[in-house]
Amino acid sequence: MIGISKLYCGTVEPSDALRYGRKSSELPSHLLQFSKDKRPVVVWNITRRCNLKCIHCYAQAKDQVFDNELTTDEGKNLIDDLSQYKVPVLLLSGGEPTIRKDLPELAAYAIEKGMRAVISTNGTLITQEMARVLKDIGLSYVGISLDGMEKIHDRFRGVKGAYRAALEGIKNCQKSRIYLTFLKIWIFQGHVFITLSMPAAGQNSWKKI
Ligand code: SF4
Q: Which pLDDT belongs to residue 208?
């Protein structure tokens, strides 16, 4: 698999292998596919619960408690296993991962065990306080996706106000200087448009592809 950002921006160059080496534990996340040891990035859907109702939901998420999910201790056991296997990056997703109160604890534990922790979120629940906590524990980055402008996004997400809430979450991450990727995909008159923006932490400039 080759990321679209690499194809369009040339973000991967031969010199990268010299600069970073080929060990997955030393490579930045976007270069992991070029590692020699081929350790996998693991995605853990820490909950099926979600506050949105996307028409494209891949997880059949609902805003309800699911009683068969891993507890905090069971999650830490899982992280121990992943750490022994030398997994370089743990992506915490869902459902909506920020719904789980123990998200910072689990992410911090993964970091303590030598992994980079990242989250994939709809962004709507990231308050200033949560963004500060995530920054303080050393989260590598937060990924938030938008499906289009406000009307389209809210229609796809099944909840009015989801777009504005996501933008608020993005702003809070920026204020706390968390690295952020922001992916927007939309289809217009038979053409697919993709915008990948990667603002430097704490800045308002967006790199558009
Ligand atoms: S935000 Fe994600 S988990 Fe929640 S309903 Fe949408 S696609 Fe499903």
A: 42
Q: Which residues form ligand 1's pocket by a CB distance below 6 Å?
A: 50, 52-54, 57, 59, 61, 94-96, 122
The whole-model pTM stands at 0.80
Show the beta-strand stretches assigned E in 13-128: 42-45, 89-93, 116-121
Structure tokens at 196: 């990948």
Q: What's the average model confidence in pLDDT over 83-90?
A: 93
For ligand 1, the distance from its centroid to the CA atom of residue 54, given in whole angstroms, is 5
- Domains defined for the chain, CATH in brackets: 39-184 (3.20.20.70)
pLDDT for 24: 73
The Cα 160–Cα 42 span in angstroms is: 32
Contacts of 42 (CB under 8 A, 6+ apart): 82, 87, 89, 90, 91
For a mutational test of ligand 1's pocket, the pick from 98, 157, 159, i.e. the residue with the most ligand atoms closer than 8 A to its C-beta, is 157
pLDDT for the residue numbered 177: 87
| Residue 127: closest CA among 178, 93, 92 | 178
User: In terms of pLDDT, which residue wins out, 186 or 38?
Assistant: 38
